[in-house]
């Protein structure tokens, strides 16, 4: 009989505790704001004393790093699912991917701020935590290049949608004003970069 691999129960418990700490950190960030998160607040949510967190995360920035990686991994996973069902027409496909970006962003302010804004002046994600975001952008840019969109023009559409997200949070949180402007904005950009109209044959 083949020997079954032994479970590392200590490692499993440690990883479970790390996930619990990150979940608690997200709860605090959503309730009180990302920048006001404290180790004491996080520790109290998981029944620990603040110093005990250091056996799992070396610092508050290490917790932010774990949150950053987790957020981008979630977006990467959801984006892969969206990409698997894109419409054939490039303009329609851009509308779908950009709407996914918009909806993911406006679903969670704290998550969006950590992923895409520099409100934590002393935090820089590690290379490992940053990797999912790099993969997402590279995949998106490669798709754009495949239909004739330059890297610069691709950055413009990302900035355009990010602007709509920022306006949503600043002026219409909980509303749908800027979501309603999304397709029109993408059409204006698509016209400027020469993507064919949706009623023309697809060029994918």
Describe the structure.
The chain has 204 residues and is mainly α. It folds into 2 domains: 7-57, Homeodomain-like (Arc Repressor Mutant, subunit A, Orthogonal Bundle); 59-204, Tetracycline Repressor, domain 2. It has helices spanning 9-32, 39-45, 60-83, 90-106, 109-116, 127-146, 151-171, 177-180, 182-193. α1 (9-32) packs across α3.
Major beta sheet summary:
none
- The count of strands amounts to 0
Nearest-integer average pLDDT = 92
Distance between the termini: 53 Å
| Strand percent estimate | under 5%
**What is the CATH first-level class name of the largest domain?**
Mainly Alpha
The CATH topology of the largest domain corresponds to: Tetracycline Repressor, domain 2
Radius of gyration over all CA atoms, rounded: 20 Å
CATH architecture of the largest domain: Orthogonal Bundle
Briefly, what is this?
The protein has nine helices and no strands. With 204 residues, it is mostly helical.
Keywords summarizing the entry:
mainly alpha; 0% strand; Arc Repressor Mutant, subunit A; single chain; 204 residues; Tetracycline Repressor, domain 2; 2 domains
Task: Itemize the secondary structure elements and their pairings.
Elements: H1 9-32, H2 39-45, H3 60-83, H4 90-106, H5 109-116, H6 127-146, H7 151-171, H8 177-180, H9 182-193
